[in-house]
Amino acid sequence: MELLTPRLRLDALTSGDAAALFAYRGDPEVARYQGWQPASLEEAAEWIEALAAEPMPGHWWQRAVRLRESGTLIGDLGLCLPGLDRSGDANGDVELGITIAPACQGRGYASEAVRAALDWAFARGVNRAVASVDPRNTASVALLCSLGMRQEAHFRESYWLRGEWADDLVFALLARELRAGADRAGRTR
Ligand SMILES: CC(C)(COP(=O)(O)OP(=O)(O)OC[C@H]1O[C@@H](n2cnc3c(N)ncnc32)[C@H](O)[C@@H]1OP(=O)(O)O)[C@@H](O)C(=O)NCCC(=O)NCCS
Predict the structure, then answer these.
(1) C or N: which end of the chain has fewer Cβ atoms within 10 Å?
(2) What CATH number is given to the structural domain containing 10?
């Protein structure tokens, strides 16, 4: 799957991306509220090597976030697709996570990439998207709020993160809420 937005291209991560990915994913500030931080370039390369080529129900699917013009890797976006129910139909939420390299933050790239991923998932019949963030991760909370996502839960000290129990906020958005927001924006233009 390749998604194009006005400024970005979302496509597969390749072995040639390992150094750029390690540079931002290995940054302690970037990794501060994330479960995975590569300890070495080799670990980043192995992580890319192990990524699924195609989306699979119930599994994370990682996409590169690149500048459309140059192809430069500026981040990555993960989608955990709904699992299958007993009749073999996809049933459940899609979960999203995104990382943007510090040098490229604050320019609207995460919003643009997540919107494209939401459109892609909702066009495939997914009804609900969720994202889980540490409340101290103010940039992520701001991103999710700016996308119109609603905070639905605050789980206190619900997981172990880098030597301490951490809280977890769950944000959600329904497909019809995104469509209604787009309709409203269209009417006010
Ligand atoms: C969270 C993250 C992906 C945001 O990326 P970004 O490209 O800088 O975000 P955008 O420029 O698209 O900004 C989106 C919105 O969040 C706001 N925002 C972004 N960073 C912010 C910050 N540090 N403080 C306050 N608001 C912030 C922007 O103002 C914007 O709001 P607006 O649309 O109302 O203007 C980035 O900070 C990051 O990679 N953090 C580390 C990885 C991480 O923790 N990921 C978990 C994500 S679920």
Answers:
(1) C
(2) 3.40.630.30
Instruction: Tell me the average pLDDT across 30-45.
Output: 97
Over 80: is that where the pLDDT of 148 sits?
yes
Q: How many domains, in total, are found in the chain? A: 1
Coil/strand/helix, residue 114? helix
| Whole-number pLDDT of residue 189 | 67
pLDDT average, residue stretch 81-98: 92
Distance 85 CA to ligand 1 centre (A): 34
pLDDT at 164 exceeding the cut of 90: yes
Question: Could you tell me which of 99, 95, 66, 100 has the C-alpha nearest to residue 83?
Answer: 95
